Amino acid sequence: PLHTNSSIQIRCTKNTTAIISMDSGLHASNASGTHRAMANNNGNDYLSYDIYTNSSFNSAWTANNQVTYIASNAAPATINVYGAIPANQNVNDGVYNDVITINATF
């Protein structure tokens, strides 16, 4: 599999609790063995992938779970996000993408 990581920046008032969630993306109904899928530029091929809350890639961040952040101060905080694309998917070469909406509820 291909693994990668990124981050989400959030800034809250001190002692505020934020519940961070994300949807399944635009192409989740085309995922095979994962929770999400990316479409190629032609929209006729899909590459399955998952997003995780930890670097061990064993806690999938699905649309059904959330991450809780409690601000210890008013400075911006970084929440790490990890992604994995399973190997051996029978798809055409190309550029694949998806759009995920991230929500923070205070």
Explain this structure to me?
It is elongated and about 50 Å long. Strands 1-6-4-3-7 form a 5-stranded antiparallel beta sheet, with no helix packed on it. Strands 5-2-8 form a 3-stranded antiparallel beta sheet, with no helix packed on it. The protein is mainly beta. Strand 3 (36-40) and strand 4 (46-52) form a beta hairpin. It contains no helices and 8 strands.
State the gist of this model:
The protein is mainly beta.
Strand arrangement, major sheet? 1-6-4-3-7
Q: Low-confidence runs (pLDDT<50, min 5 residues)?
A: none
Write the element-wise H/E pattern from the N-terminal end onward. Answer: EEEEEEEE
Mean pLDDT: 94
Multimer state: single chain
For the terminal residues, how far apart are their CA atoms?
35 Å
Largest beta-sheet characterization: 5 strands, antiparallel
The helix tally amounts to 0
Shape: elongated
Strand content: 35-45%
Overall number of strands? 8
- Structural class, by secondary structure, is mainly beta
Helix proportion range = under 10%
Radius of gyration: 15 Å
